[in-house]
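We modelled the chain as a single entity of 149 amino acids. Its sequence is:
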Amino acid sequence: MRYLAPILIGLVYVLLMSLIHEPHRRRVNAVMVAGAGAAYLSGGGLGGWEFAFTAVATCVAYRGLDSWAWTGAGWLLHTAWDVVHHLKGHPIIPFAHDSSFGCALCDPVIAAWCLGGGRSPWRWPHGGRPAPMSSGEPGGSRRDRTPLR
């Protein structure tokens, strides 16, 4: 369960976030990256490096407001920071020794989904193929704005 539970948490995150319509889904995920970037600020054990990482994560999250690729990159940055904390710092959850390790397994699942365009598995057309990615215009494609049926 040490390995499986974090991966399942990442998959549940993806499924729940997929219920949010575009472009809000992309923006909410960018905000989540910013929050994850600040997760260690209150006791990660790496001193001033915690502030430096939070600044970088905030910049990446800001770019993620308009780009799934930047949001995916933010989750991968947080994965690397989780590994550093697992090896040298304090865990993300103080009373759970392996919590940073688990976060380092969960975050790449979310990153892969983001790097794939944050598509919703709930919105597949009847042919069984995923819906095309949004055209890049503000607000996404018309398909992304239609309500769930």
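As a brief sanity check on the tokenised model: The mean pLDDT is 84. Helices lie at 4-17, 24-37, 48-64, 68-87, 99-115, 142-145.
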